[in-house]
């Protein structure tokens, strides 16, 4: 998993040409691998409630930016509110604390 963050920390390299150097070809190959792995990992670990709102892209950096924007949006607030409501409706009061102790 070396350089897995390469696609997130650098912009997509220019397309290779017949005159591309060995170093450019190596970097392009490493960036493509990093991008593919990053996309796969992010899509696998994204919360189900936001998967449908994530940008469809083949660029990991763009996907990360999309997730960042979603996390700051109203849908994230609704998701958070839903989680809190779920918690509040399932907790049980055991009588051991008063309201002033919280």
Radius of gyration: 21 Å
Taken in chain order, the helices and strands follow as HHHHH
Ends distance: 45 Å
The level of helicity is 55-70%
Organism: Cephalotus follicularis
Protein name: UBN2_2 domain-containing protein
What report would you give on this structure?
With 102 residues, this protein is an all-alpha fold. The protein has helices spanning 6-9, 22-45, 48-51, 60-71, 74-90. The chain has one domain. The chain is 60% helix and 0% strand. α2 (22-45) packs parallel to α4. The longest helix has 24 residues, at 22-45. The protein is elongated. The model has no long low-confidence stretch (mean pLDDT 81).
Write the layout of secondary structure elements.
Layout: H1 6-9, H2 22-45, H3 48-51, H4 60-71, H5 74-90
Question: What are the defining features of this structure?
Answer:
102 residues; elongated
Briefly say what this structure is.
With 102 residues, the chain is an all-alpha fold. The chain has helices spanning 6-9, 22-45, 48-51, 60-71, 74-90.
């Amino acid at each position: 998993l070396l350089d897995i963050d390469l696609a997130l920390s650098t912009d997509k390299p220019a397309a290779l040409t017949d005159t591309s150097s060995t170093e450019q070809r190596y970097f392009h190959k490493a960036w493509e691998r990093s991008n593919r792995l990053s996309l796969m990992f992010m899509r696998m670990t994204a919360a189900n409630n936001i998967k449908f709102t994530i940008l469809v892209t083949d660029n990991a950096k763009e996907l990360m930016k999309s997730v960042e924007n979603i996390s700051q949006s109203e849908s994230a607030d609704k998701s958070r509110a839903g989680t809190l409501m779920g918690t509040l409706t399932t907790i049980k009061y055991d009588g051991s604390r008063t309201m002033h102790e919280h």
